[in-house]
């Protein structure tokens, strides 16, 4: 069982895995797609009264439902994969309480993040700060999409643990994230490294004249 003091670290570690997956590929995919989704919903909700208040709630509920489905599928496939590995290794117990609690607290952490983002978005809508509102509105689908895609990746890993291979749609997702990593993230890293190389290192300050030797 996970102690209360370990809960924040479990949640932070989960989001760290999401952010660092394939050198930040999910961040790029989530942010770009989240921006498109938020703009699409603005068009769909155009002309509706209290649009700025309804959109964050609708996006939060919509993405949360998808996340719950993916979480449950990941949870079930994970149990089946663990049972398969236990039978293969001739072990009776395949359910670990620590992993169950970790799954629960990850779910709880995602719910809290979604609640905070939605709450801030609604408050800023009341204050009528459009550019800040747009940032938080975009962050709702962006963050949730990153979490959903990571759950999708986890389902593929569970499938591989059980059957020894991944279906084509999981392989396509892996190729997509690797393409983003190789095409965008590495270029950004190379750009920074090239800039560092162009900057000459300091050679120190040379004295204008040599100091005279002091007598012993």
TrEMBL record:
Residues 195-216 are annotated as: Disordered. GO terms for cellular component: membrane. It is a multi-pass membrane protein. It comes from the Bacteria. The keyword Membrane applies. It is found in: Membrane. This is Uncharacterized protein. It comes from Christiangramia fulva. The lineage of its organism: Bacteria, Pseudomonadati, Bacteroidota, Flavobacteriia, Flavobacteriales.
């Amino acid at each position: 069982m996970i102690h209360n003091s370990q809960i924040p670290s479990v949640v932070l570690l989960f989001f760290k895995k999401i952010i660092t997956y394939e050198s930040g590929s999910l961040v790029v995919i989530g942010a770009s797609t989240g921006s498109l989704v938020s703009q699409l919903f603005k068009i769909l909700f155009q002309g509706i009264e209290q649009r700025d208040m309804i959109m964050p709630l609708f996006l939060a509920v919509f993405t949360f439902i998808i996340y719950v489905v993916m979480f449950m599928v990941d949870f079930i496939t994970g149990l089946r994969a663990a049972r398969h590995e236990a039978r293969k290794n001739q072990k009776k117990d395949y359910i670990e309480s620590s992993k169950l609690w970790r799954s629960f607290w990850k779910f709880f952490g995602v719910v809290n993040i979604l609640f905070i983002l939605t709450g801030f978005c609604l408050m800023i809508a009341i204050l009528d700060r459009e550019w800040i509102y747009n940032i938080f509105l975009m962050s709702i689908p962006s963050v949730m999409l990153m979490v959903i895609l990571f759950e999708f990746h986890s389902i593929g890993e569970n499938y591989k643990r059980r059957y020894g291979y991944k279906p084509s749609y999981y392989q396509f997702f892996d190729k997509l994230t690797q393409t983003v990593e190789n095409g965008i993230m590495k270029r950004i890293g190379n750009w920074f490294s090239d800039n560092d190389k162009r900057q000459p290192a300091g050679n120190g300050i040379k004295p204008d004249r040599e100091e005279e030797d002091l007598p012993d």
